[in-house]
Write a sequence for this structure.
């Protein structure tokens, strides 16, 4: 049986950094970026960061906000996806090469 390590409590470990992350999220929400696109960006960032916890959280949030299942599955393949017109596929969604 595998042991899953306990998650780091970011708020407790680094409250200043966590506050900046919350401030960033608030700024993005106020920026005028379409909420649907913002959700997909959050999902893609979590994929690139390899954070299963955040990926799970952002997918659940997107589904609660009505995102279609197919688009959620296509986030990782946005370059080839018919669900991602060019305006929804900014270059910063892809990892640096």
């Amino acid at each position: 049986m595998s042991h899953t390590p306990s998650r780091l409590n970011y708020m407790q470990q680094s409250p200043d950094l966590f506050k900046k992350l919350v401030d960033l999220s608030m700024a993005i929400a106020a920026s005028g970026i379409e909420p649907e696109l913002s959700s997909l960006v959050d999902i893609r960032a979590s994929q690139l960061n390899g954070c299963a916890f955040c990926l799970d959280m952002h997918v659940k949030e997107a589904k609660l906000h009505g995102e279609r299942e197919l688009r959620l599955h296509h986030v990782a393949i946005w370059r080839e996806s018919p669900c991602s017109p060019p305006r929804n596929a900014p270059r910063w969604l892809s990892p640096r090469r």
Remarks:
- The chain is about 55% helix and 0% strand.
